[in-house]
Amino acid sequence: MVQAIINISKNANQILNIVKAKHNLKDKSEAIELVTMEYGGDILEPELRPEYIEKIKRIEKEGYGETFRSIEELRRKIESC
Questions:
Q1: For position 59, what pLDDT does the model report?
Q2: The pTM is what?
Q3: Cα separation of 47 and 58, whole Å?
Q4: Taking a C-beta distance cutoff of 8 angstroms, is the pair 23, 34 a contact?
Q5: What does the pLDDT look like over 40-63, one tens digit per residue?
Q6: Cα(23)–Cα(43) distance, rounded to whole angstroms?
Q7: DSSP code of residue 24
Q8: Which entry of 23, 33, 75, 78 is 20 to 30 Å from 44 by CA?
Q9: Is 16 buried (19+), middle (13-18) or exposed (0-12) by CB count in 10 A?
Q10: What pLDDT score was predicted for residue 18?
């Protein structure tokens, strides 16, 4: 366990008191722990949405799109549309 002396604003102190009361925590240290772990999870290891994972799997399986052997082949495809 690391101990730290911190300076926080009145608003931050009020927020910690609300978090402490809402989650029935013993002290502000637990409130700080809770807030930082919730926020830190988003920063350090964000989870991918399931629909995004499915999209990536589909792209890997089917390929992202057409491939062309030359610029001329691409130009013909674009001009034919």
A1: 84
A2: 0.52
A3: 19
A4: yes
A5: 776 776 677 888 888 888 888 887
A6: 23
A7: T
A8: 23
A9: buried
A10: 96
Count CB-CB contacts under 10 A for residue 30: 15
Helix axes 28-44, 10-22, angle to 10 degrees: 90
Bigger pLDDT: 53 or 9?
9
Residue matched to tokens 């930082």? 36
Phi-psi sector, 75: left (phi>0), alpha (psi -120 to 50), beta = alpha
Alpha helices in the chain (DSSP H): 10-22, 28-44, 50-62, 71-80
- pLDDT digit string, tens, across residues 14-32: 999 999 999 999 999 999 9
Q: Are 76 and 66 in contact (CB under 8 A)?
A: no
